[in-house]
Design goal:
about 160 residues, alpha+beta, 7 helices, 6 strands, about 20% strand
Length: about 160
């Protein structure tokens, strides 16, 4: 009786192990939180809040989700240096934007004066918006934008 594994058996075991390793090491992803959760955390440990505004129908938003937020460098920066929030611009949920309770949709249009997607709002830990950006970006453009935000963080953190 021959108990030595065949080449086919060895290949099968290798593929199972390799597939298991690939599955167990998922790509780095942004740890999105709710707007209220980000504000509460920012009160305890001040960091800038980056709000990504999207809509289900927004194709550039989906492309950014895959290409930009799936980038390990960008997700690492967002996860460590910012509180990252995703808000549906069409939502009727209520949040406190710039100190006033409003629907997300009204914050988008009336408070932040945004008209297109994707859009981003940089919010200080006290809940006041610092600036808005409306543009679809490549990973390199988003990385540059985040770096510019971090350069000015000390000036903005107490607003």
């Amino acid at each position: 009786m021959n108990l030595r594994p065949s080449l086919l058996t060895k290949l099968f075991v290798f593929l199972i192990l390799a597939g298991g390793l690939a599955y167990s090491a998922p790509a780095t992803m942004v740890h999105w939180m709710t707007y209220n959760e980000a504000l509460a955390k920012a009160q305890k440990e001040p960091k800038l809040i980056l709000v990504d505004l999207y809509a289900d129908w927004c194709v550039p938003c989906r492309i950014m989700d895959k290409n930009v937020y799936g980038d390990p460098t960008i997700s690492a920066i967002l996860n460590t240096k910012f509180y990252a929030v995703k808000l549906d611009a069409d939502s009727q949920d209520t949040i406190k934007c710039d100190g006033v309770k409003n629907t997300i949709q009204n914050c988008f249009h009336q408070v932040w004066e945004l008209t297109a997607l994707p859009s981003f709002v940089l919010v200080a830990p006290k809940g006041m918006s610092i600036l808005t950006v409306t543009d679809s970006m490549s990973p390199q453009e988003m990385l540059e934008l985040l770096r510019k935000f971090l350069e000015k963080e000390k000036d903005w953190i107490n607003q």
